[in-house]
Q: What sequence folds into this?
């Protein structure tokens, strides 16, 4: 099975940018679709973005479309989430997740589609 470790979260001012990384080990990331989710204090864990196993298809939550960009580098066994135009409401713990199975677009947005999760990285956006 694959193990995932996120990094790159920190305190940033509104309007700033960050790149989160999701380093995979144990298995090659080319065998997995990758999703990013986030959870603010007292809130549910919400879908942010996902990329298919081939890397050819991406999905975004409406709240981040046009600001965030998901990618993965199978050669480096790492997934990425580029966060631009950050807003205070983007403050949350960001989690990456991996799924080896083909899914429908609607399934790709759900927590239950993903079997493997990282520990999360904190992103805090100040106003």
A:
């Amino acid at each position: 099975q694959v193990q995932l470790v996120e990094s790159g979260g920190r305190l940033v001012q509104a309007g700033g940018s960050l790149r989160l990384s999701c380093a995979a080990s144990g298995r090659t990331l080319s065998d997995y679709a990758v999703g990013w989710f986030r959870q603010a204090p007292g809130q549910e864990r919400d879908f942010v973005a996902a990329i298919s196993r081939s890397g050819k298809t991406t999905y975004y939550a409406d709240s981040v479309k046009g600001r965030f960009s998901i990618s993965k580098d199978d050669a480096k066994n790492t997934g990425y989430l580029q966060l631009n135009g950050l807003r205070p409401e983007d403050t949350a713990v960001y989690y990456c997740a991996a799924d080896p199975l083909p899914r429908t677009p609607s399934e790709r947005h759900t927590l239950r589609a993903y079997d493997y999760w990282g520990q999360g990285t904190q992103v805090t956006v100040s106003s």
